[in-house]
Task: inverse folding
């Protein structure tokens, strides 16, 4: 709401300080991106300021969870910083690109979800923030803590061999704890995070009968890497014909 969200050196140092405090205290970071970019009045200083933010984001990687909520325009270096987060949540109206797209659809949230950049699509700001809160309710505060879901409810659903993908995962995990990630990317596989008897767990499903593509493999590898960084166990349901 101030200067169209343009980032100047002072703002960048302010953000850097928050990152430093998060690293020192083992606290997760939520970044909300809605900015027209750097303050061009400061010239090259702005690029240096963005570099400081990127440096701190890299330092936090694997130490504390980082969630990026893209709720407007996120372009250039800001897009790179957003994508350094563990999970990117985008609202339907938001835009994400490194350079101005040549086609109207290239920078949309829908395209970001299909290409595996956005892990979660939300219809508006309220839903995006709610998803971020839900993620933090199951993710550990840092890589030294054991993760659990204090709001878990035991699942009374019937587990059936007929269930596939997210339906099977939801019937096994604690009730209403499952958050599916990368739903629109690599659609022959399912990745989700939730809890199982309080303990946070990752879930991978390759049991929908379809062959796995390169996108599916990339999706699973990225998700398991996230779980590995925070010592989250992974439950995998396998029933696949192999690779495409």
Result:
């Amino acid at each position: 709401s101030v200067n169209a969200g343009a980032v100047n050196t002072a703002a960048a140092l302010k953000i850097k300080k928050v990152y430093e405090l998060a690293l020192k205290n083992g606290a997760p970071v939520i970044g909300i991106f809605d900015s027209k970019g750097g303050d061009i009045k400061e010239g090259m200083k702005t690029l240096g300021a963005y570099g400081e933010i990127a440096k701190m984001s890299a330092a936090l990687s694997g130490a504390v969870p980082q969630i990026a909520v893209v709720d407007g325009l996120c372009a250039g270096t800001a897009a790179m910083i957003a994508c350094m987060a563990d999970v990117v949540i985008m609202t339907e109206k938001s835009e994400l690109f490194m350079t101005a797209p040549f086609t109207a659809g290239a920078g949309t949230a829908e395209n970001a979800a299909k290409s595996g950049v956005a892990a979660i699509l939300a219809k508006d700001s309220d839903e995006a923030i709610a998803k971020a809160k839900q993620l933090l309710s199951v993710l550990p505060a840092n890589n030294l803590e054991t993760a659990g879901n204090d709001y878990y409810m035991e699942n009374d659903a019937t587990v059936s061999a007929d269930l596939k993908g997210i339906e099977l995962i939801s019937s096994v995990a604690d009730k209403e704890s499952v958050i599916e990630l990368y739903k629109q990317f690599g659609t022959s596989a399912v990745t989700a995070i939730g809890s199982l008897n309080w303990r946070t767990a990752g879930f991978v499903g390759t049991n929908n009968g379809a062959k796995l593509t390169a996108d599916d493999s990339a999706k699973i590898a990225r998700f398991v890497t996230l779980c590995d960084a925070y010592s989250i166990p992974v439950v995998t349901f396998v029933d696949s014909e192999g690779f495409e």
The mean pLDDT is 92. The helical segments are 9-25, 44-60, 77-83, 109-114, 125-138, 165-172, 214-229.
